[in-house]
Design brief:
Elements: H1 3-14, H2 21-38, H3 45-53, E1 60-62, E2 71-73, E3 85-86, E4 92-93, H4 99-112, E5 118-119, H5 127-137, H6 144-165, H7 168-171, H8 176-179, H9 181-192, H10 197-208, H11 222-243, H12 259-264, H13 270-274, H14 283-287, E6 288-289, H15 300-316, H16 331-337, E7 351-359, H17 374-377, H18 381-391, H19 406-412, E8 415-421, E9 431-437, E10 442-447, H20 460-467, H21 473-484, H22 489-498
Parallel strand pairs: 7-8
Antiparallel strand pairs: 1-2, 3-4, 5-6, 7-9, 9-10
Helix pairs in contact: 1-10, 2-4, 2-6, 2-20, 4-5, 4-11, 5-6, 5-9, 5-11, 6-9, 9-10, 9-11, 10-11, 15-18, 18-19, 21-22
Length: 504
Amino acid sequence: MDSVTQTIVNYIEQTDVSNREDLLSVARIAFLDYLASLAPAEDEQAVMDLARFIGADQNITVNQDRSTNQKKTANQDTSTNQDKTSNVDGHDSYLTVRRADKALYYGFASHYLDFDDAQANLAGHFSTVLYSALLAVLEPTDRWHDFLRAYIIGAELEGIIGSLINPAHRTQGWHSTGTVGVIGAAAAIGALRGLHGESLAQLLSLAATQSAGMFFQSGTDGKPLHAGLAARNGVWAYELLQYTSLQTSTKPFDPERGWFKTIGNITVTSNDIISRWLAPGQLIDPGLWMKVHPYCSAAICGAEAAETVAHSIYTTSSSYVSKHYNVSPDAEEQGKRRLCATLVSSLWDDIDRVTVHFPLGADAALRYTAPTTGREGQFSIEYIVYQVLAYGAVQDELFKIDTIDQSVRDYMSRIERVYDLPKVSQTERITKVTVTLKNGETFTETVNNPKGSPNNPLTLEDIRIKLGLTLKADQIDRIMEAFTHTNEVEPFLQTLRKEGVLHV
């Protein structure tokens, strides 16, 4: 075993987070946010197609009327205790779906709407991969503390790796959710299942050799597939190790020809890991970006700035006071409007131009300046700012349309990007939006700590609102009650299944 691999193995074995309530609290919120990102995607056609592909549709019937929010297995009503059936690989599970395929499904679904959290060092998404892989290998006797510890270890390793290989990894076209995610998934599984020594090294090796994912897939179903494949391959690595006699290298991070050298063309030493491990922790610094709308996190600051500008124009512009439609930035009003794709009043007939200001390179993930589909629009600041100025708030349903109208694309052509803002710390992003009206009036706003950022994080109440896009209030109450008052994983999972979540 090389020294870098040995160091990582030691940390997976020995890391104790019992006294790190700061990390544990973020991990708990991240798991609820993961569920809130997963649930609304399960009725999407591509997600249902994947369920059918892995055979999950033989075991579940999803009521398409979300108002009932009830899901059943073919063998057992979810209002009673779930029957366990044997997997094709011989292991007991909730459904007759291989654990690796279950991880694939959960990873794909939880990242499908791009509603899940992101992290700056990784330049990607690790909760979607880690929780999907961990859920797939959970045993009924597992406890919350061990589950969350495994997640924290996987997140720590992914964030540290990201800090070492980025930004070059990202600019070369890799999608770290896939490339690094599979390593994090393996580390988390190894931590949860208590692997040691060479077994851990081989698990990491089997995962690292499956590292893949290219960023040109953003705006397509290929991007969420990276999350699913990373989770699946982490589980697959574990099962190869446990149930076959396959042997592999125990030097996956060898400085001369290991993963870092192959993927990033860099040399990493043990000290690079030691100096960063839980100092203070990747969940704390740079922390997680959580979302209230399903689009790339690189656009969060710009969207919030545009909302403030729109509100100012509607309420203070000499041309628009008479057109005030009670556009409000408060959460209640946003919640009412976010799913309503009906123009309340449009500024666009009177807008001359819009300028979105970034630090150099801060918009790299927003790769579409003239998107043609709603899916591409999730990665376009132009499309997001267009929505805010047309509707007063981002309209989630507009990310699902097949074709963006030419008239909308004409409006987006008035939006330009400039790179005149200073760089900020990894815990922050900063974006300024300037709107110039045809009458010469100019409105501008700068945002660097929007809702959902590490310095302005989502609260439990925010997560409730996000869950409310899919579930009823009484369902959320029961989920929160079970989440808060159990030390074991299985009772909580049973509650989720009864309420129509985690049905695969």
